[in-house]
Amino acid sequence: MIPSAFAYERASSIREAIELLRASGGEGKLIAGGHSLLPMMKLRLTSPDTLIDIAGVEGLRAVRVTGDRLTVGALLTHDQIMTNPLVREKLPILAETASQIGDLQVRNRGTIGGNLAHADPASDLPAVALALDANLQVVSVEGSETYAAEDFFLGPLITALPENSMLTGVSFAIPPAHTRGVYEKFAHPASGYAVVGVAAVIGVNQGQVNYIRVAITGAGDVPYRAHDVENTLLGRPLTPATISDAAKLAAEDGVMADDLFASAQYRAHLCSVYVKKALLRASRIE
To answer: What's the pTM?
Structure first.
C-alpha cells in the first residue's frame, strides 16, 4: 500500500494554506492529523498532487465560550477535546463522542476539523454536530463563511466546503442546563467505525419533554436529524413507553445503507435500538 508520488508543502497561516490550495489547481489536499486522508492515499482511492500540511498553523486550537455557544479550533485533536475541562463542563456529550473515535493513536493525531471536513459517513462526530446545532466556520479566497451542520454534509466524503477553502473552527450550541446528552454506537467489530451512532440530548420540565435533539450517523450516506423521534417525544411525559414509541421512528428521516456487513433493514433496526438506548441513558431510565 504505497501512495502515488506527491509534493509536500507546509503552511504557516490560513492565508498561506489557501494560496497553496489555489496554486495546486484543484489537485491539493490539506492535511493535519492525516488519519482520514493517508489510508485513502495508500489504497489509491485518492491521489492528490500536493499535500499541504496545516498542523503548524497558529490560532486553531483554542476553546472558548461565547454566550450560549462553545467554539473549538479545527486543529484540536480528539484527545484534546475529550480531556479539555471547558468541553467536559459545557458539552460532555462532545467529550464522550471524541473518546469513542478510533484508537489511542487516532485520537492523539486526528483533528476535529479534518474529521468533519472528510465527511466519512461512518464517522462519529457528525452526529453530535447535528445534535448540538453546530456551525462550521470556513475561510476561502472569498472570505469567511459559516455553514450549519445540516447543510454541510452532502454525501459520502462530500461537503459544502468551497474549492480552495479551509475549515477553521466549529461552534456548538450549549444545551439548557437541565438537559443531558449521550452518544451511543454500534461499532463495526473490525474498524470501530459506527455502523449506527446516535447522539441524543433531552430535557424535561414539569414532567414533560421540552428539549430534544436526536441525530444519527453511520446508517446511510449522510448523517441526519431524527425529527420524527423528536416530534413524537416533545411535549410528552418521559417514560420507557414513550421512548419506545419514538424510537420505532428512528430510521424514518434517513436513507439506510445496504452493504455486506449490514443490510438496510438491519441498520433501520439498529437505529431504533440505539436511539432507545441513548434516550434511556440520557433520561437516566436504565
So the answer is: 0.95
